[in-house]
Amino acid sequence: MSHAGRLVGAALAFALALAQQAAPPPLPRDELRDDELAGASKLGLPDPIPGLSNDERALARLRLGRRLFFDPQLSADRTVSCATCHPPEHAFASPEKLPRGVGGRTCARNAPTLFNRALGTAQFFDGRAATLEAQVVMPIESHDEMATTVDEVVKRLARSAEYRALFAAAGAAEPDGATLAAALAEFVRRLIAGDSPIDRFRAAQGDLTAVERHGLWLFESKARCWRCHAGPNFSDEQFHTTGIGVVDGVAEPGRAAITRDESDRGRFKTPTLRMVARTAPYMHDGSLATLSDVVRYYQRGGNANDHLDPLLKPLELSDDDVAALVAFLEALSRSGE
């Protein structure tokens, strides 16, 4: 091949590489089974699940919310859906440290699992949304996520006969923002995880391996995990400064950006541990790649800063203890198995 030919070939290869890099990833498809969205409680969880019913109007909201969750029309350039950052195959959490929004923009935080958000008392890592109805529309209007407006999305959907029928069944004479929010919230509330080997062991309905039992004992005793990861959803739904995101001893704002209270600096909401083995990477910034990394981070007592939660202290854990805690978390992630 001539020198000129090699140059042309190299230029074409470079252009192809750029095009592939810029191309948005394939959109997740709705392959959920209907029984996965039944909203029924599971062993270890409150029964019934708060805020859920199966009356005709609720089921109509579910059908609409399910359609919306996978629809890229909710984003400015129609390349991003809710499922993009919360893919079902990754337990409705992002497999990326910081997921990508429209135009290749990077979201500010890792996208956590949506499982059991019906049990939540505040939404987002910083708690800026008090309800799911408030939370589900915020990504639509976030510059780094979907980068449009609810009003614009509603106008788009109103042009579709399918959507007009779905909104009508959900109780809206015309597509509107309130019904859109209620429908997406209905879908999210029905993502339920429970009935793990840990729940069955606690209910004397099953057994654990010796390593898993040791991990459970550590979780409830000297590892002190239960101090924050409490209750049926393994989260106290409170805000703590663990040291993640600290730079040169200074914590990022965290909850303080919402409350304007400096004592909240660095605080982020305790995430659920249910399904945690399927939701790597971890922490609000996706900075820890594995469950072992997470356990060892807490083993050393987090990152020092002036706002570090007093609950965090170095832990006396052996390598076997670390492995046992990971085994416990993996067992807690086997919902319905």
Fold and architecture overview:
The relative contact order is 0.13. A two-stranded antiparallel ribbon has the order 1-2. The protein is built from 12 helices and 2 strands, in the order αααααααααβαβαα. It folds into 2 domains: 20-189, Cytochrome c-like domain (Cytochrome Bc1 Complex, Chain D, domain 2, Orthogonal Bundle); 197-332, Cytochrome Bc1 Complex, Chain D, domain 2 (Orthogonal Bundle), CATH 1.10.760. The protein has helices spanning 3-22, 56-69, 82-85, 132-141, 150-158, 161-169, 177-189, 197-202, 210-220, 256-259, 291-299, 319-332; strands spanning 239-241, 267-269. Helix content is 36%, strand content 2%. It is globular and about 60 Å long. Helix 2 packs across helix 7 (177-189) and helix 11 packs across helix 12 (319-332). Mean pLDDT is 93; it is low at 13-21. The chain starts with a helix and ends in a 5-residue tail after the last helix. It has 337 residues and is mainly α.
